[in-house]
């Protein structure tokens, strides 16, 4: 006789969902922003609908 012991196992599933859309406020009509020295600019980036929440990074000079 064969001994068929039930096997139980657990698993974790991560579902990654990209953002539905990304918006950057403060750019105007261009995707390039030029700022004069000693002045400031405010840009706001929003990524909506991603899971896990999107990690947004800003870069200066590429």
From TrEMBL:
SUPFAM superfamilies: Immunoglobulin. Residues 19-62 form the Ig-like domain. InterPro entries: Ig-like_dom, Ig-like_dom_sf, Ig-like_fold. This is Ig-like domain-containing protein. It comes from Stegodyphus mimosarum (African social velvet spider).
